[in-house]
Amino acid sequence: MRRRQVLLSACALLSMPAFGSAAVPAHIEENLPQARLAGKGTYTWFGLAIYEAELWVGDKGYRADLPFVLELRYARKLDGVKIAEASADQMAKIGAGSAAQRARWLANMKTIFPDVKEGTRISGVFVPASGARFYLDGKMLASVPDPEFARAFFGIWLDPATSARSLRAALLKDAGAR
């Protein structure tokens, strides 16, 4: 009887995913074959969790000229217009685009980003030399065919000048090539 329990326990352990691995959501796998989770972290504001971010990369890891997916899972209810405005503010802080570009990007983001509640997921797909695609809970939300916008938007989290340096470090934790 004891040998059987040990054998069953060993089988159960072997069937578990490896530490650090995560099931790849279908919309991420569709946009990034062989995707793997490179890192994740929580963004807080004055001690309040706003969202958890995950960076998904391909087998060549993270580079600014390769596709990747950044997914945010919101921890609270937020207005979509406020999300767009905060994004534009962060783009300005990292020095992305001109004032005129940021105004256009803000107007576009206001039409894209919906109001969110706890558990809502918004995924952004970086498509090099093409732009970005956005998904809401795994369903296509919008496509933005503007490479400069895409670099500026994802720079909010990944640019060295980001105001969320510890989150950037957590996202890039395991982002090297494999």
TrEMBL record:
Signal peptide start and end residues: 1-22
A Pfam entry, by short name: Chalcone_3
Annotated InterPro entries: Chalcone_isomerase (IPR016087), Chalcone_isomerase_3-sand (IPR016088)
The UniProt record lists the keyword Signal: yes
Record domain Chalcone isomerase: where: 35-172
Assigned keywords, A-Z: Signal
Name of the molecule in the record: Chalcone isomerase domain-containing protein
Species of the source: Massilia violaceinigra
